[in-house]
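Researcher: I'm preparing a figure for a lab meeting and need a structural model of a single chain. I don't have an experimental structure, so a prediction will have to do for now. The sequence is pasted below. Please return the structure as tokens so I can convert it later.
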Amino acid sequence: MNQRILITGSAGLVGKALTTRLAAQGADVVHFDLHAHGQSRGDVRDRDRLREVVANVSGIIHLAAVSRVIWGERDPAVCWATNVTGVRNVLEVVSDSPRMPWLIFASSREVYGQPIHLPVDEDCSLSPVNVYGRSKVEGELLVEKARRSGVRACTIRLSNVFGSTADHADRVVPAFARAAVLGRELRVDGLDQTFDFTHIDDVSRGIVALVELLAADEPTPPPIHFVSGRPTTLGELASLSIRIARSSSTIRVAAPRDFDVARFFGNPERARALLGWQPQVRLEEGVARLVHAFHESPHAIEVEDIVQ
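Model: Understood. Here is the structure written out token by token.
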């Protein structure tokens, strides 16, 4: 793959997995992350810094964001500045670049809000119920406007991506796996809350397939979500984690958070039709990998407070 690709948010779960997969295919990856060091450090709210790194790239995978629903609720101003102004800055820099790099914008299943019909496909109405979801809808609108004006930009939507012990400790899948390995109580905020958990290996493989399409100068596709197509309740996830870990952990049920979507699972058909992609790592396998990784990595499991 003869491409120089900028990944914003390169230090995150998806960014790290993409870096490995793209580099293995011969791409030259440029890192850009607020939490990185040296030349790789950068903030998408800083347009001048973006302009420097975009000048010599073939394409951009824009992952940088306030990426947690709860963080958006706690600090809406920072969420909006990063998730909306950041997208606007990237698009403006792309539009000004003589190379006009292609752009993949990472959105979220949160844009669908509380869907009426399940499974959800990409043409479902966008009705977000929280600050984070609304910021992602606004980002999508900016991307679509830029696409209509000639920028080779497209949107992907991610859903409860998991698969690494280095993920945020309070994300539900690693939190449950870690707590089960430790024999600690698993707190479930809404036993029947239902989500579509997608393994990082599948997500990174799908994004690389999209990169290959754009690198071949194919037309930009409509929004694509990478989903397993399989609904799992939080209660089922907690029980699965305990069973796989062969743990003595118990489950404590708490009320669902009022800013969370209650039920979501998606239809992966568009990704299959356009990219030949389909999920391969089942939830049971992904949780088993995490449980094994926590058993094998004492450092990864040293977290004082296990929360959902």
